[in-house]
Predict the 3D structure of the following.
Amino acid sequence: MKILVVEDEKKVASFIKRGLEEESYEVETAVDGEAGLEMALERRFDLIILDWMLPKRDGMSFLKELRDRKMATPVLMLTAKDTVEDIVVGLETGSDDYLTKPFAFAELLARVKALIRRSEMDRGAELRFADLRIDPVTHKVWRSEKEIDLTAKEYGLLEYFMRNPNQVLTRTMIADHVWDYTFDSFTNIIDVYVNYLRKKIDRDAPVKLIHTVRGVGYILKEGE
Ligand code: CA
């Protein structure tokens, strides 16, 4: 389980990091909103702990950008602003929970566990895109209600597309998320797998869903 902590107060950040590492979480930290957002968009985290008042980009703007980019990573907001209005704005912008500073570590840990558990349950829910449907629990796939057989890697690739629709996914991103590692000669393998997947998903369908973005990677979308 990987957690990103975006917090400019070094003492608070290292207090959280140390505590969570003792609980066997992997923790990375960022000291401002810009650096944090870059990390959140590039790498996959299971949870983001986000301070509200941050240099360069505040928590609110961070959260808005994250959700605009369709990143569903759960966010626990840390705030010294404990007025109801501020908390409501935060939750409406897409934070999943909040904690008012100062807080006890036990409380933070309880919230972290609850959010990760909830998001794992959501992850089990069926995903749909156009007439494509996948079940992350059984790894079954349907297009127009017709079941399609995929290998484990083809399924992993498709699930990654389905969780990031309408976004260009570079070969590096695909290698990183679906194969968990990256090196240059690997990109050919990705092309091969994308072609396998296309044959099964798109070949007999009137509307193609997996498109090549020349020189960059691939995108799951409807139409050209
Ligand atoms: Ca702060």
